[in-house]
Amino acid sequence: MSSTSLPIPPALFPPVNLSSTIGTGYWGLIVASVLLGCTMLQVYFYFRNNKDGWGLKSLVITLCAASALDTLSWAFFAYVYYYYLVKNFGNDLVLLNIPWPFGAEVFVEVVAAYLSQLFFAWQIYGFNKKSWPISAVIATFATVAFGSGIAVGVYSVQDVAVNSIGSKTTSVVTDINKGFATACDIVCQVLSYASDEFNLNPPFTRTNSMITLLIIYIVNRGVLLTLVQGTDLLLFVCAPNQDTWVPFHMCLSKVYVNTLLAMLNARSTILKNDFSSISLGETQSSSNYSSEQRPTFTSHIPTIETTLSRKVYPFTKDSKESFHGQSGVFQILAVSSGTEHEPQKIGLRSKGVPPTTKPIICPFFGEMNSTSVPLLFPPLDLSTSVGPSYWALLIISIFLGCTELQTYFYFRNYNDGWPLKSLVAFMCTADNLGWAFLVQAYYSILVKNFGNPLAILTIPMGFAASDYVTMCIELAAQLFFASQVYGVHRQGSWPAYATIIVFAIASFGVAILSTGSPSAASVASRKVQILNDINVATSLICDAVAAGAMCFYLTVSRTNVARTNSVISSLILYVVNRGILLAVVQGANLILYIYSPSKDYWIPVHMLVGKIYTNTLLAMLNARSTLRDKMNDRLALTELQKSARGRRPFNSDRSSTMFTPAGSQETMGKRHSLRGPSDDWQDIPRFVDIKSGGATEEELEGPAFAV
């Protein structure tokens, strides 16, 4: 952290603990960022893996629009807390007003919710034309919620005072919005479930099983949404002036979008379970039923408020003094010592300006007159210091969402050996732990020590702990990649293997030496600069050597088999993309730190390093299923061509098909077993069984992230 000049002595900056007010919204924003990362990755999986027909075009359009509006809503919330905690660090009076993004976020959320609810009503009607009363009820509730939500947005724009949220007018309209939105969701789930049960009686056991599985998805989604939505409504009705409902409100729309995407992406899992005829949203017709069923997502009124009741102990003894502030000369007219039950009140006014008769009640300064200038204690604008790290914290939270989802996909789809599973579990756990340390560190600085400039002059323990965790993640990823280089080409690959290990251990050791000083000024010291430069440089060289060696040995392992070459080309592409991404991040980290170590511009890039290592490793491991599908399609096409020519096709049993090495029957026209002798057997990578995706004995000698 960089040091910040203090306009007046630190004693005049009594810190304010905002844990019970802004703190709840801070945690809600962090969790919403994680869910946003899951949303982005699920959207990518949807467009990559699903080839829906024209029947789902409207769903795709609604999905894209809702995801964009959901991201925009998150951006508004992120700016609001940036405005509160970073740009006005220490300005207690800024909490009395609602920034403009609150009102804008209201309109965005209401429009997204209204469109999604109408879309679900239309889907129910398309599923069964006789269910038009259900669609009418849903549309009516959605319209009432939309209208009341627009009214709340108008009130938020017109009245920027934070007390307006708890006013009777705004509170009643907000209760109507949340109540009808909750009722709409309950009607959607309950009546759509009843429609499935009583209107679908297919004559086939397999179809019944598929419908039962879909009903389970709908029920699980409905229960989750009802819990989140009901908690949001209950907390707001009971205590609208408290901030306990804010985290649930922030995460609500993310839950809607993610549950919808999860149901759409689950179709591939259903297909793998022998339900080859099911397609969510495009169900095959039968004599008794034919329709579409698609879930939807909803978000609700996004107003947020900050209550200002908290215990503050500004000063302990009377004083009368003058000093120069940012807006002129001010004088403390009277200071009465405060107690635990009655905080002191401070009368303030600008010199030469008479006080007014209408006081302003400030939770920190006590009773103030309207001519008092709010900046008695000039706040610190941390936009150039803590600001970049604040945005980086939200970005790594998004990356953490991607990590969580990729880890879930890995353990669900692959049956690798315990060493590889242990590595993935370790990296995921360490990634979560490092993220938690950073979140707690910024919570301590921005929320628990709001307005305390001394808090940014000392590096919190969470930063050092996060650095140690990142070192372990980086070392584990580099050692794993070194083992893969050695496994691809054992003959002659040991120099590259040894080089990667040496640079990885050297980078880890130097990083340990450069971490540990709690002072922010120590970051810019000459010794720490040299150690950090060596650390990043050795890590960059290690990644470059690993990527270059892997590409080289994969290239020399090419054969005359088109399918094998296609897999190798895909692996080379993954390795190159990973290497470029790591080189860009590590290079930017090194350049920014060398250019200005005393500034905080390098910290956001440094915070991303561990997330990049974890996500690139998981992406390569999870890419095996995509490569298998690609190879299966190529194999099926080859066999079809051979059959059309009257030739005897190659063994097409997909349950036991393996990628054969050079010298196999496809190359030489001979039938060798998979373990049969071959002159160039040691020069190619081994692969994994297509059906199980698990490790075989042959894979123990090849790259674990191969197909």
Automatic annotation (TrEMBL):
InterPro entries: DUF6534
Limits of the DUF6534 domain: 183-268, 539-625
Record's keyword annotation contains Membrane: yes
Domain of life: Eukaryota
Keywords: Membrane, Transmembrane, Transmembrane helix
One Pfam assignment: DUF6534
Region called Disordered, residue ranges: 644-684
Chain ranges passing through the membrane: 26-47, 59-82, 102-122, 134-155, 390-411, 423-443, 455-482, 494-514, 534-556, 568-595, 601-621
UniProt KW Ribosomal protein keyword: no
Polar residues: compositionally biased ranges: 652-667
Protein name: DUF6534 domain-containing protein
